[in-house]
Amino acid sequence: MAAVLSRDELEHMADTLHELLEALHEELADELNEIEHVRHLLKRHAHGQGDRQATLEVARRLNLEHMRHHLESIASCNQALERINRGRFGRCRCCGEAIELNRLRADPLIDTCLSCQS
Ligand SMILES: [Zn+2]
User: Fold this and answer.
1) Which of 10, 7, 18 is nearest to 89 (CA)?
2) CA distance 97 to 37
3) How high is the pLDDT of residue 75?
4) How far is the CA of 87 from the centre of ligand 1 (A)?
5) I need a surface site. Which of 38, 47, 91, 113 has the fewest CB within 10 A?
6) How far away, in angstroms, is 1 Cα from ligand 1 center?
7) How far is the CA of 12 from the centre of ligand 1 (A)?
């Protein structure tokens, strides 16, 4: 089996993945801060203080689906980096064939070829 990606390209992919990981971690940290904020506001309510409307507003901004999605993306990033380390990057997880390069370049997190995707 011929190499799927050049070394330079693999390194570039790894850089991209590290940047993505960093961005995802920052987003998660922000989201955790928001939750902390809501907890703080709720605690004030327990003591009869604070603006109920404002608390609802902050709580409404919390999006657990987003957080779950961010967590899953972080896991996918780490798996892709591990595939790079093991020399398995760019190979389909199911059939072992080379994943289409244009798809891989568009999304380095992809781990199946087109025919195995569905
Ligand atoms: Zn496949």
Assistant:
1) 10
2) 48
3) 97
4) 17
5) 47
6) 14
7) 23
Ligand 1 centre distance from Cα of residue 103 (Å): 13
Q: Of the candidates 76, 86, 61, 85, which has an alpha carbon nearest to the alpha carbon of residue 108?
A: 76
CATH number at residue 68: 1.20.120.910
Number of domains in the chain: 1
Domain span at 83: 7-111
Give the model's pLDDT for residue 33.
Answer: 94
Q: pTM for the complete prediction?
A: 0.81
52, 56, 61, 117 from 83: Cα distances, Å: 49, 43, 36, 18
User: Do 41 and 54 contact (CB within 8 A), yes or no?
Assistant: yes
The per-residue pLDDT for range 72-92, each reduced to its tens digit, is 999 999 999 999 999 999 999
113 CA to middle of ligand 1, Å? 4
Low-confidence ranges of the chain (pLDDT < 50): 1-2
